[in-house]
Amino acid sequence: MNRDWFGDILKENEKSGERLKGMGKPLSRETLEGNVLDRTVKNAGYLPEWVSLQQEVRSRLITLIPNLQNVDRKDEIDQEIDAINILVKKYNKICPAPMQKMLITRELAETQLKRWE
Questions:
Q1: What positions does the domain DnaJ homologue subfamily C member 28 conserved occupy (predicted)?
Q2: Which helix (H) or strand (E) is 108 found in, with range?
Q3: Which helix (H) or strand (E) holds 27?
């Protein structure tokens, strides 16, 4: 059986005769407008893992793109693209479905970067 912990706390508080801070006062307009969950999460400093991955992919692409034409570093660049694509696959598994992205290719990296911004 599920317990209503918050309800129990309120009942205990009522029995003791104490009032909770702000109880009985009207809610502010700011509290009632916009997406309360988004604002609460943002204020708490929480960053979903898929957003962190998105930022990492973007950062790595920005570093990679100026080096794409460097034929002396072809193997190193291919390894970095493979590493980025591992992050893209992880991102695609946990992000909202409409936000999924294609894997990075050498030929389309600059175009794909725009989709990660």
A1: 19-60
A2: none
A3: none
Residue 40 one-letter amino acid:
T
- CA 66/CA 54 separation, integer angstroms: 20
pLDDT at residue 85 in the model? 96
pLDDT tens figures, 26-70: 777 776 677 666 677 677 777 788 888 999 999 999 999 998 888
The CA-atom distances, in angstroms, between 94 and each of 33, 42, 87 are 28, 19, 11
Q: How far apart are the C-alpha atoms of 95 and 90, rounded to whole Å?
A: 9
* Length of the chain, in residues: 117
With both helix axes pointing from N to C terminus, report the angle between 74-94 and 49-64 in degrees, rounded to the nearest 10: 160
